[in-house]
TrEMBL record:
It comes from the Eukaryota. Transmembrane segments: none annotated. Residues 728-820 form the DYW domain. Keywords: Repeat. PPR repeats lie at residues 109-143, 208-242, 309-343, 411-441, 513-547, 548-583. This is DYW domain-containing protein. Signal peptide: none annotated. Pfam families: DYW_deaminase, E_motif, PPR, PPR_2.
Length: 820
DNA sequence: ATAGGGTTAG
C-alpha cells in the first residue's frame, strides 16, 4: 500500500523533504492506513475507518499528513470528512488551517459553519468569530441553528455584540433552548447587565445546573463575588445541589474574599458529595489553599489526586513559588517533567518568578531561552513581563531592558515592571525616564502598580515636586487611600523631609496592616526622632496591628540614629519573645550599628561573635563604620579582614578603611588599601549632591567646575566661608583624606558636593526659603559643622538627606544633635 | 462531525 506515497503530491506535500521524524509519523499513519486499506480501499464495498486516524493525531503535522492522505484517497471532498478536518485543526490549535480547509469545501452545511465558528472561539480568536457569525448570517447557504449561538456568545467581548446576537436568537426562535439561554445569561452577567440576565433566567421554563452555574460564574467574572454567593444561596434554598462546576467556580471567590472558613466548608462538601476527584475541583482547591498560604493543605489535595493535568502541576508549582519556596517549586517542575507533562506558558511564568527569588543566574538564561524557543514571548505579554521581572530581580538590568524593548506589545504591567526594575536596582533616574516614556504612550493607562513603582523612585532622588504632582493624579482617582499607594506617599514625604505631611497622610490611610506603620516609623527614624518611632510602635501595638520583621528593622535603625541603646535592646527582646520573630542578618546589622555608633565597640564585637547566624557584609560593615566614627583603627582592621572574606567587591568598605587610616595619619595604610582596591578594579563611588529647583534636579559632583554658574557658586562659597569663620568655624582637616598641604586641604573641604549644592541653593532661591539637599554618600563632619553655621548666618533651614539619614539645620544647630 | 456553565498569570 506504500504505492500511495508516489501519488502523494499536490499542494499539501511539503516543499522540502520532510524530516526523519515527520517521515516516521507519515509512515506510521500510512501503515495504519495500509492495514485498514487491505480490506478497505481495495474492496470498494467497505468504508475505511478513519476514526482511528483522526484520534491518533496529536500534532498539526500529523493532521496535515492525514489530510494529504485523505486527498489521495479521494475522501477529502466528503463534507463529513472535511468538517472533521476543520475540527481536528481547531483542536490542535491551528485556526488558519481550519479556515483554509473550510474555504476549500464547496458545499457547506450548518455543521461545517458551526465547526468553523467554534474553531475560532476555542482558540481565542473572539473578534474573528463574531465577524464570522455575521458572514454566516448574511449567506443564503445555511441557516444557523441552536448549535451556532452558544460559542459566539461566549466569544463576544462587549455587551453591544451580545445584544446584537441576542436579537438574532430571538428572531430565529432559539431563545428557550437551555444551552442558548444559559449562554445568554452568562454573557449578560459578564458585562454587568444583571437585570436582563435575571429576566431571562427567571422566565426560563426549565432550568438545569448549567443555568445556575452560568449565573454564578457570570457574576464571578464580573468581579461581583457577593452577588455570586447570594445566587448560590438562592440555588441551595431551591434544593439544587452544587456540582463540580459550581464548586470550582466558587472556590476562587473564597480565596478572593479571604474567607478560609467558607473555602474549607466547600472542601468538606466536595468530599462528602464525591466531587473531590474532579480535576477542576482539586486544582481550584490547590489554588485556594495556596492563596491562603496553607501549603500543607494544597499539598495534601495534590497528593490525593488520581489524575493530574497541566493545570494541577502549574498550580502546585505556583503555590510554592508564591509562598516563598522557589526551591520546592523547581522540584515539582522536575517531577512534572518526569511524568511526561509538557510545560506551558504559565509554568514558565512561575519558573521565571522562582528564579527571580533564588537569584539563580544559570537558570535565568535557561528560562529565557526556553521561552524564546517556544516563541511565547511574542504571543503573550505575561511571560515577557515575567522575564523582565526575573532579570531585574537578579540585578541583570541590561537583560531586563533588552527583553522589555523587544516586547512586541507592552501593557501597563510591562511598563510598571521596568520602572520597578530600575528603581529597585538603585537607578532612580532611569526609572523616572522610563515612566516619562510610558506617559507618552496614549493607550497605556497608569494603575495602582504604576504609582507604587514610580513614587519610590521620586523618593529616592528627592524629587518632591514631581512626587506632589503624582500625588495630585493619584488623589483624582481616589487611590491615595490605597494602603500601598498611601504608604508610598508617606514614604515620599518622609524621605523628602516633610515629616508633617507624611504624618497627616499616615492618619488618612488604613492602618490595619503593618505596611504604613513600618514606613512612618522608619521616616521618623531617619529624621533622628527615635523616641517618636518608639511611641508610634506602642500605638501600633495598642491598635492591635501585628508587627513584622520589617517593623523591627525600622525600629532598630531608628534607635540607632538616635543613640537609644537601651530601647534598642528592648525592641530586640520584644521581637523575639513577644512577637516570635527570629532576628535576621538585617536585625543583627542594625544592632551592631546601634551599639557601635554609641561607642560600645567591644560590646558590638562580642555581639557579633555570639550571633547564631554567619555574619554577612552588612554586619561587619556596621562595625567598620562604627570604627570610622570612633577612630578605632585596630578593631577597624580586624572588622575589615572579616568583611573582605565575605564581600571583597564593595568599594564603600575600602573607602571606609582608608578613611580610618587617613584619620589617624597612617598614610602608608591608606595607600595600601587604595592600591589593593585598585588592583581589584574597584573605583571609588564619586560623591554627588542634588537639589530640586523648578521641577528639575541639579546634580553637583565634588570639585566639579563644569556647572554653568560655577563661578558664582565658588564666589558665594568664599563669602560664606569668611562669614562662618568669623563665627568661629575652624576647618577640620581630619576629614581630608588626601596627604596634601593645608591650604589645599581647605579648598578640598569647600568643594565637597554638598557645599556646592547649598551655595547654589542660596543664590538661586529667595532669601530665607528652606533648602533641601540630597547626598549619595554620608555628609562629612566638616561639612556638617559648616552647614550648621551657614544655616545661622543665612537664616535658612537647610535639610540634607544623606545615604544614611536626615540632617535638619536651623539657627546653627542640627536636629541630630551631632549624633550621626 | 458542531453547542452552555469550571481551575492556573506577570
Amino acid at each position: 500500500m506504500f504505492r500511495l506515497l508516489p501519488t502523494y503530491k499536490g499542494r499539501h506535500l511539503p516543499k522540502s523533504l520532510p524530516s526523519f521524524r515527520t517521515r516516521l509519523e507519515l509512515y506510521s499513519i500510512t501503515a495504519t492506513c495500509a492495514q485498514l486499506s487491505c480490506n478497505g480501499i481495495e474492496n470498494e464495498n467497505k468504508e475505511i475507518d478513519f476514526e482511528i486516524l483522526f484520534n491518533s493525531c496529536t500534532k498539526t503535522q500529523q493532521a496535515k499528513n492525514l489530510h494529504a492522505l485523505l486527498i489521495v484517497a479521494g475522501k477529502a471532498h466528503s463534507i463529513f470528512i472535511a468538517t472533521r478536518l476543520v475540527n481536528l485543526y481547531a483542536h490542535l490549535g491551528d485556526v488558519s488551517l481550519s479556515r483554509q480547509t473550510f474555504s476549500q469545501i464547496r458545499e457547506k452545511d450548518a455543521y461545517t459553519w458551526n465547526s468553523m465558528l467554534s474553531a475560532y472561539v476555542r482558540n481565542g480568536h473572539f473578534h474573528e468569530s463574531v465577524k464570522f457569525l455575521d458572514e454566516m448570517l448574511s449567506t443564503s447557504e445555511v441557516r444557523p441553528d441552536f448549535y451556532t449561538f452558544p460559542p459566539v456568545l461566549k466569544a463576544c467581548g462587549n455587551v453591544i455584540d451580545g445584544r446584537r446576537i441576542h436579537c438574532w436568537i430571538s428572531k430565529l426562535g432559539f431563545e428557550w433552548d437551555v444551552f442558548v439561554a444559559a449562554s445568554l445569561v452568562h454573557m449578560y452577567c459578564r458585562f454587568g447587565s444583571f437585570a436582563v440576565a435575571h429576566k431571562i433566567f427567571t422566565d426560563m421554563p426549565f432550568r438545569d445546573m448549567g443555568c445556575w452555574n452560568a449565573v454564578i460564574s457570570g457574576f464571578c467574572q464580573h468581579g461581583n463575588a457577593v452577588e455570586a454567593l447570594s445566587v448560590l444561596d438562592e440555588m441551595r434554598l431551591e434544593g439544587v445541589k452544587m456540582d463540580s462546576v459550581t464548586v470550582s467556580t466558587i472556590l476562587p471567590i473564597c480565596a478572593q474574599m479571604d474567607d478560609m472558613l467558607r473555602g474549607m466548608l466547600i472542601h468538606l462538601y466536595a468530599i462528602k458529595h464525591g466531587l473531590e476527584f474532579d480535576v477542576f475541583v482539586s486544582n481550584a482547591l490547590i489554588n485556594m489553599y495556596a492563596k491562603f498560604g496553607n501549603l500543607g493543605h494544597a499539598q495534601v489535595v495534590f497528593d490525593h489526586m488520581v489524575l493530574r493535568d497541566l493545570v494541577s502541576w502549574n498550580s502546585i508549582i505556583s503555590a510554592y513559588e508564591q509562598n516563598g519556596d522557589p526551591i520546592t517549586a523547581f522540584q515539582f517542575f522536575g517531577r512534572m517533567q518526569l511524568n511526561g507533562v509538557q510545560p506551558d506558558l504559565l509554568t514558565l511564568v512561575s519558573l521565571a518568578s522562582s528564579v527571580g527569588q533564588t537569584g539563580d543566574f544559570h537558570n535565568s538564561r535557561s528560562v529565557h531561552g526556553f521561552v524564546l524557543r517556544k516563541c511565547w514571548i511574542m504571543e503573550d505579554v505575561v511571560i515577557g513581563n515575567a522575564v523582565v521581572d526575573m532579570y531585574s530581580k537578579l540585578g541583570i538590568i541590561d537583560s531586563a531592558c533588552n527583553v522589555f524593548e523587544d516586547l512586541q506589545f507592552k501593557d501597563v504591567i510591562s511598563w510598571n515592571t521596568m520602572v520597578t526594575g530600575y528603581a529597585q536596582n538603585g537607578l532612580a533616574s532611569e526609572a523616572i525616564e522610563v515612566y516619562c516614556m510610558m506617559q507618552k504612550c496614549k493607550d497605556i493607562i497608569p494603575n495602582q502598580g504604576t504609582w507604587v513603582s514610580i513614587l519610590p523612585a521620586y523618593a529616592h532622588v528627592g524629587a518632591v515636586q514631581q512626587g506632589m504632582k503624582t500625588h495630585g493624579r493619584v488623589f483624582k482617582v481616589g487611590l491615595h487611600l490605597d494602603v500601598f499607594v498611601g504608604t508610598c506617599l508617606v514614604d515620599l514625604y518622609g524621605k523628602c523631609g516633610r515629616l508633617n505631611d507624611a504624618m497627616s497622610l499616615f492618619y488618612e490611610v488604613p492602618r490595619t496592616s503593618s505596611v504604613p506603620w513600618n514606613a512612618i516609623i522608619s521616616c521618623h527614624g531617619i529624621h533622628g526622632h527615635g523616641e517618636t518611632s518608639l511611641q508610634l510602635f506602642r500605638y501600633m501595638l495598642d491598635e492591635g496591628v501585628e508587627p513584622d520583621h520589617v517593623t523591627f528593622v525600622s525600629l532598630l535603625s531608628a534607635c540607632s540614629h538616635s543613640g537609644l541603646v537601651d530601647q534598642g535592646w528592648w525592641c530586640f527582646h520584644v521581637m523575639q519573645e513577644e512577637c516570635g520573630i527570629k532576628p535576621s542578618l538585617k536585625h543583627y546589622g542594625c544592632m551592631v550599628d546601634l551599639l557601635g555608633r554609641a561607642g560600645n565597640l567591644e560590646i558590638a564585637y562580642n555581639f557579633i561573635r555570639s550571633m547564631p547566624l554567619k555574619p554577612d557584609a552588612s554586619v561587619w560593615g556596621a562595625l567598620l563604620g562604627a570604627c570610622r566614627i570612633h577612630g578605632n583603627a585596630e578593631l577597624g582592621k580586624l572588622a575589615s579582614e572579616r568583611l573582605f572574606e565575605v564581600d571583597s567587591e564593595n568599594v564603600g568598605y575600602y573607602v571606609l578603611l582608608s578613611n580610618i587610616y587617613a584619620n589617624v595619619g597612617k598614610w602608608e595604610g591608606v595607600n595600601e588599601v587604595r592600591s589593593f582596591a585598585r588592583g581589584r578594579g574597584l573605583k571609588k563611588t564619586p560623591g554627588w549632591s542634588s537639589i530640586e529647583l523648578n521641577n528639575r534636579i541639579e546634580v553637583f559632583y565634588t570639585g566639579n567646575q563644569s556647572h554653568p554658574q560655577h563661578e558664582a557658586i565658588y564666589m558665594e562659597l568664599e563669602i560664606l566661608t569668611a562669614k562662618i569663620k568669623s563665627l568661629g568655624y575652624i576647618p577640620d582637616y581630619s576629614f581630608v583624606l588626601q596627604d596634601v598641604e593645608e591650604d589645599e586641604k581647605e579648598h578640598i573641604l569647600t568643594s565637597h558636593s554638598e557645599r556646592l549644592a547649598i551655595a547654589y541653593g542660596i543664590i538661586s532661591t529667595p532669601p530665607k526659603s528652606p533648602i533641601r539637599i540630597f547626598k549619595n554618600l554620608r555628609v562629612c563632619g566638616d561639612c556638617h559643622n559648616a552647614t550648621k553655621l551657614i544655616s545661622k548666618i543665612t537664616d535658612r533651614e537647610i535639610i540634607v538627606r544623606d545615604s544614611n539619614r536626615f540632617h535638619h539645620f536651623k539657627d546653627g544647630i542640627c536636629s541630630c544633635g551631632d549624633y550621626w
